[in-house]
Amino acid sequence: MNNELNAVNQWLENQVGQTILIRKEEQGDLDETRVQLEAVEYSEHVPARDEYAEGSSLILHGPGHVINEKGDIPLPRNTFQIYVDGLHETETDESRINLTTDRAKYLIFKLP
């Protein structure tokens, strides 16, 4: 795990037991997901679950909901996966983290 990824992982580990909000921007779409973070896992080789190829990922464990205008949708399998291959920019402070990969931009912050 490189230094940037290690900093992201450490920030997330510090949020275990908290509720976080994840804003993900990918191909012009903006998704928001709320997760009650129970655990953080790093995996070098995660098999594809959907249209994505396999790759290194941070897997956030805990119940959550995808937030949309039609109402909240429960998070499948109580996990949120962040593919981190191509991670090339991170910025962290006490209350939030920004990360950019080849696929998407994420803003993650803890909720009060």
UniProtKB/TrEMBL annotation:
<dbReference type="InterPro" id="IPR058926">
    <property type="entry name" value="YmzB-like"/>
</dbReference>
<protein>
    <submittedName>
        <fullName>Uncharacterized protein</fullName>
    </submittedName>
</protein>
<dbReference type="Pfam" id="PF25846">
    <property type="entry name" value="YmzB"/>
</dbReference>
